[in-house]
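The instructor's notes for this session suggest beginning with a concrete chain rather than abstract definitions. Hand out the sequence below and ask the class to guess, before any prediction is shown, which regions might be ordered.
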Amino acid sequence: MLSNAQNIQSPSFDNTNYDYGGAGNVYQETTGSMSSAYDLPLSIMSATDGIWPPLFGLALGISAIFLIVIIYSTFRVVQIRLAEREHFAHQSRSPEVGLLLGHKDEHGAATGGISQTKQRWQQVERHIQSTNQNDWRLAILEADIMLDDLISSRGYVGEGLGEKLKQVRPEDLNSIEAAWEAHKVRNKIAHEGSSHELNEREVKRVIGLYKQVFTEAKFI
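After discussion, reveal the predicted structure:
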C-alpha cells in the first residue's frame, strides 16, 4: 500500500504559467482596444481645435449685426410714434377739431371750419407730389390722422384707430375696407420706418383710398 501511495505523483501546476500568460494577453488586447476607442474622439477634437475660434467669431459678429438692426428699428419706431403724437397733439388744438368736438370761442361761435380740413388735405396732396420718400410717408401719416379724426367725430372710441375701425359697420361707411387697407399701410410705415420702401404709384394708390373715405363722409 505504501509503495502504491509513493507511486502517486503530486499534481503539477506547471501549466498555470501558460494560463496566466494567456489572461495577460487578453487583458493587454482589451486595454489596447479601449485606449484606441478613447484616442479617436480625442484625435477628432484635436483636429477641430483650429475651427472653433473662427466659428465663434463669426457667430459673435452675426449676433452683433442682428442686435444693431433691432436697436435701430426700435429707435425708428419710437421716433415715428413721437412724431405722430406731436402731430396729433397739434391737430387736437386745431380749429377743425374744435369744430368736430363742439368747442366754441369766447363769442359762442363754433371754432374752425371745413376749410381747415381741406387745407390739411391739400398739404397731404403737396407731400405726394414730392420725389422724397420721407414726404410720402408724412402724407400717409397725416392722412391717417385725418381718418382718426373723422372716425372719432362719429362717436367711435378706442385705444387706437384700429380699435375704432373694428366698430364701424359697412352700412355706416361703405368705404370701410378702403379705410382698413390704407391704415394697414400706415402701420407698416410706423413699424418699419425708412426700411419700408415706397414708390410713387403705391403712395398715390394709398392716398386715393383715404380720399375715397373722406369723399364719402364729405370730410374734405
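Then share the key points. The chain has nine helices and no strands. The chain has one domain: 57-216.
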